[in-house]
Model the fold of this input.
Amino acid sequence: MERWHNRVAVVTGASSGIGAAIVKYLANNGMIVVGLARRVERIEALRNAVAAEARKRIHAIGCNICNEHEVIAAFKEIASKYGPVAVLVNNAGIVRNSTLLADGNTQDIRDIIETNILGVVYATREAFRAMKAHGGDGHVFLMNSIAGHQVPILGKISMSIYAPTKHAVTALTEVYRQEFNNERSKVKITSLSPGFVETEIVTPHMRDSLKDFSRLHADDVADALIYCLQTPPHVQIHELTIKPLGELF
Done:
């Protein structure tokens, strides 16, 4: 991790779950970490969960990742206060109980698409611009899912529009790889696709229905991200799938 020491990492959806775990891991490994979320107080509270010398490296900015203007403003603030972005973790993502056939589901569908796809596009555009302007290297992570490669059959639980948005993330990963190459940059792109992770994104209904399923913890995903960051500059892990032992799909 020496390559990334004292460089800036941005984590979206940083207030809980996988995002919060990644903030802690990056700070403990020497990076300056800026968490983006609406619940900034929860990001600030993460300082109490890292090594004493790492606390000063955790910062929080309030941002609704679905709002393009807020994303642009957040990256401008990051550049002015903390320096150029070297690592971006597109972690923000949501799921809803609604099905595609449910009456009155339009807002749920729109929220998922805007968070899981457009939020990634806004943040990656702004981060890449900073990376290219300051040496052309960096690493962008897209938090994907096994549902981005196949649609799990979960009994009567519908993956709704969530699975299609994660399939879009799989496609975005390859499109970004090609565009980064076309820009002659040294920026890496990695899709992280975990299986069932026990986090706040899991609704009570899903948790009850899947109570017998094997599951990962947020720290497992954060640990995998650190592994990817430690690869040599010429090595790019394009896709990393992480499943709990005994997963049924």
User: Anything to note?
Assistant: Helices lie at 17-28, 40-45, 68-81, 106-133, 162-182, 204-209, 218-229. The two ends are 33 Å apart (CA to CA). The mean pLDDT is 94.
